[in-house]
Amino acid sequence: MSKRASSNSNETPIHQKRCKIEGYHMNNSTRSASTNEYTVGWICAISTELTAATAFLDEKFDAREYNLPDDDNNDYTLGRIGGHYVAITVLPAYGTDTAAAVAKDMMRSFPSIRIRLMVGIGGGAPTSKHDIRLGDIVVSIPHNGKSGVLQYDFGKTMQDQEFQMTRVLNQPPQNLLAAVNGLRTNYESQGHLLEEEIESAFQRLPRLRETYQRPSQSSDRLYKSHVIHPLHDDESCSRACGDAAPSVVPRTKRPSDKNITIHYGLVASANQVMKDATTRDKLALHNEVLCFEMEAAGLMNDFSCLVIRGICDYSDSHKNKDWQGYAAMAAAAYAKDLLNRLRPIRAESSHVIPSQLESDQRAGEHQPFPADKLEMMLKSLYFEQIGARHLTIKNAHAKTCKWLIKHQAYLDWQDPSKLESHHGFLWIKGKAGTGKSTLMKFALTDAQKKMKDKKIIAFYFNARGGDLEKCTTGMYRSLLLQLFERLPELQSILSSFPLTGVREDYNWNIQQLKSLFEEAIHNIRDDAVVCFIDALDECNEDEIRDMVSFFQNSASQAGTILTYPRKTRYISSSKGKKGTIKT
Predict the structure, then answer these.
(1) Do 562 and 426 touch, CB atoms closer than 8 A?
(2) SS3 category, 221
(3) CATH classification of 361-582, choosing from 3.40.630.10, 3.40.440.10, 3.40.50.300, 3.40.50.11310?
(4) Selection from 184, 152, 144 nearest residue 291 by Cα
(5) pLDDT by residue (tens digit) across 183-209?
(6) By CB distance 3.0 to 4.6 Å, which of 93, 235, 296, 468 could disulfide with 474?
(7) What is the reported pTM?
(8) Are 130 and 273 in contact (CB under 8 A)?
(9) In terms of Cα–Cα distance, which of 312, 332, 328, 326 is closest to 133?
(10) Topology of 14-341 in CATH?
């Protein structure tokens, strides 16, 4: 996972010098770090899409302080999502040619970009097979022998024959398609949290709510194809075209948990806006097109990317801007979720920690590490009362908790063949005072006795303890120290960590700790790691959501992870929902 490092060993790493600006962290220090740090290229077509994309950055950097080529005409927003450093730009004008020019400049200025996204809004093409509605998301994937993007205005016209599309476009990269399928599986079995993520963005940036929140569902009207909005009539569609049965396609009301539905298939692209319901229906019927837009065809062959579109209209004469803001937010929220599923790519820069090398490559890459500095870094992870809560929990009475090890969910969690059903997560939940922490201590002791081939690590949140006992920063410090003590060979990864300012009382930040934890997990070869986490409700809710998301994305490397929430609101839509034991 990539990190940022200061070139001056006497200064605090530049990514720690931040000020809070409009809901996210903004780096406000002069820097000359290489653009090679950026491995994600994100292109938007209009400013509304850029605003939405920026709202989902975990951290934002000042693009003016990077040395970009003088002949790069793009305007960049730079930031971080999870372990990915992201360069975002917006087109100066519509069209496939403009998109191609913008992508060319981006790739010159950010040569390490390997994850390429086109994220924004589009017009839906609903059919009886695909119930596409406003606010839904369309993701471009290959379908029926086509690459995922269909350029419908490039081809040939033969006498007495229909127009034939002839241009062949590249499909999205395999790593993105694999991530889409993985995320799709999770969404189908567990649901998604996109609406919650959008709400969190509004809480961070309240000024966006007025323009970017979800419009009233009554404004989502799909007009029959023969109903055309009067030319040059600025009246609302409900007034000009009616909103009753003769004009509108009847549709059943969706359940509230399906307000945002993700559709996968073909995106149609051309140098023209689609405002013709008859042509829309024809392309949707013959080619199973799900969405129309104006940029992707200019990108696919030289900037092979994944196209993510939030649906803001139905590609007909009834276009309006009411849904554009929310559709852009939905698409950006999905893009962030996808990035959080992808392992960060190692950038070709000395400033960045390797994060996507094969285990044997990593093993040979870490250099000898001075013993005194190693000891200092290990001491910096330790804090007082690091394991105090575990010691204060009473041991279970004889036979009181033995039912757990016979419970079917617990047995399934231990069965490698059933990993797809629970994704390594086992949730134990119950009301306050029912002995869940005692049960957790029993499970931990039982695992230590029986799972001799696995590395067992644990953390108990404690709301009545010190600051580090009730936050995920303390949790990651504790888990890392346990890993380094149980697997001393992992300590070699510390040699890749920027040493600037590290001392016994070093103030670790959460991203540094997550990067180290992920690097440690990726370096574990034959050993599976089992992680026990107790009392999630004794930590800040946003921190827990971030931790659960991070653990979900690391679960395949970490083996099995047992988390232990006391309140179900944290996990109502998480991967652990299937493997749940109630106390």
Answers:
(1) yes
(2) coil
(3) 3.40.50.300
(4) 152
(5) 999 898 889 999 999 999 999 999 999
(6) 468
(7) 0.58
(8) no
(9) 312
(10) Rossmann fold (3.40.50)
